[in-house]
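We modelled the chain as a single entity of 338 amino acids. Its sequence is:
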Amino acid sequence: MPTPDTRPHLRDLRIEQGWTQQDVADRLSQVAWARQEQPVAANADMVAKWERGVKGVSPRYRKLLAAVFHVTVDQLGLPGLPRGQDGARRDADSLVAMVDQAAELLEQLGGAGRTIRPQVLAALTGDVLNRRTMLPILDTPAPAVSPPDPAELDTLADQYQAARATAAPAPLMTALTAHLRIVGDALSQQPSAGIRCRLLRNRARVAILAGQIAGDDLGNTIAARAYYAQATDDAYELADHPVAAIAHGYAARLAITEGQPAAALRHLDTAARLHVADAAITSWLAGIEAEAHAASGDHATARDAMDRAHKALARVTEPRAVAWFTDHHPARLAAVAG
């Protein structure tokens, strides 16, 4: 149980601003959108637990909180990684934290998480072998796994997307790569046509999320580009033009962040030629196009693209072509315009 002396400084910072805990949660959401990140799942209860020191704060939320309060991450007063004089001990501590994070994520994923559990543990064991430490904790044989249930894989995809707001990026990425490996293995077994389509559709969705985490959260743009390419290939194999357009859109966003607006516009041109009718996707792509034109100095064309983005957003109805796609949020367009 944290003592008053070891609790974070979040409560003091919040009171200085005259904010409620819900105010902090709302501002976290605003900052996340302004930084072109995924929506956050913070609420007043989560902020209260952070203030009491009973719930850890992921690296992503640390950066967002620092931006909300206009302080450095260190000035938040949050507990850091364990420190010790012995290098091996520090390495062991970090591995304990990694295992704890993976266990917490698997618990969060619920019963469907058993599908990827052996692969996640195998990945962690590999990391331990590389570091030569803590092997007795993880060196256990993985149980035999039956072919994955496509319904469970789809449930996991939903849960990964929900977990992104609160889970640490590294263990979530481990789960996603394990998931993609399992789907790839299942596809290599020559399943029936119906199962194959479900597996390809699932892999495309999970690969897009893996690309977002690799590029946005972990800074591995090479891996992100490969994940988006995998998603694009799977979508084309299915003739699923909306998902292909989404994959091209994320690849365009990645190109913009790397200072390549011309490459981004090529991705967007390819997406436009798919003639996707879904207004949510059309709005999102137009917003990215506005960013690309602005980055290349063509502000008049950027304004035209923003106008198209807002008009398309006003036409969004349910059901949509891709139910899991949520990046067409009005706050994101406001952040782009800003």
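As a brief sanity check on the tokenised model: The chain has 16 helices and no strands. Confidence is low (pLDDT under 50) at residues 1-6, 81-93, 128-144.
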